[in-house]
């Protein structure tokens, strides 16, 4: 690989459409991110929990980073001769476990990135 041709893939402020994530003390949550549909390979990616300004002092611990590979299942048309329809090729997901090691519940979003 020519390191001069690498592209940055970064993200900041990722959260559900309804607002930021919310996590109680001593509670873990597993979150996944992906790029494109169903999920393009973007090399190594790092995901960090970002506590929002104005929240109580906290420590959000990120662990168990992973990259998963999966395949969409195709189908077979019924009510007649079987006609196979293809599934989508391989897709990738990136995930982490986030644990609130603080004393108060907090709102947060995700930020991170890597090299593609």
Q: How many separate domains make up the residues?
A: 1
pLDDT below 50 for ≥5 consecutive residues: which ranges? Answer: 1-7
Q: What is the overall silhouette?
A: elongated
End-to-end distance: 11 Å
Tell me the radius of gyration. 19 Å
How many DSSP H or I helices? 0
Task: Assign the structural class, choosing from mainly alpha, mainly beta, alpha/beta, alpha+beta, or little secondary structure.
Answer: mainly beta
Series of secondary-structure elements, N-terminal to C-terminal: EEEEEEEEE
- Strands, total number: 9
Note the beta-strand portion: over 45%
- Overall mean pLDDT score? 85
Largest sheet data:
4 strands, antiparallel
The percent range for helix content is under 10%
Fold topology:
Layout: E1 8-14, E2 21-23, E3 28-33, E4 45-51, E5 60-71, E6 75-76, E7 84-85, E8 90-100, E9 106-115
Antiparallel strand pairs: 1-9, 2-9, 3-8, 4-9, 5-8, 6-7
Task: Explain what the structure shows.
This protein has one domain (3-115). Helices cover 0% and strands 52% of the residues. The protein contains no helices and nine strands. Residues 1-7 have low confidence and may be disordered.
Features:
116 residues; mainly beta; four-stranded antiparallel sheet; three-stranded antiparallel sheet; 9 strands; disordered N terminus
Quickly describe the structure.
The protein has 116 residues and is an all-beta fold.
């Amino acid at each position: 690989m020519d390191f001069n041709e690498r592209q940055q893939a970064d993200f900041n402020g990722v959260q559900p459409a309804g607002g930021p994530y919310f996590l109680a003390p001593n509670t873990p949550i597993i979150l996944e991110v992906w790029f494109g549909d169903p999920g393009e390979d973007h090399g190594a990616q790092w995901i960090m929990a970002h506590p929002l300004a104005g929240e109580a002092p906290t420590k959000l611990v990120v662990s168990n980073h992973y990259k998963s590979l999966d395949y969409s299942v195709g189908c077979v048309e019924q009510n007649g001769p079987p006609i196979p329809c293809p599934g989508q090729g391989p897709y990738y997901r990136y995930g982490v476990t986030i644990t609130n090691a603080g004393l108060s519940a907090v709102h947060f979003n995700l930020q991170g990135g890597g090299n593609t």
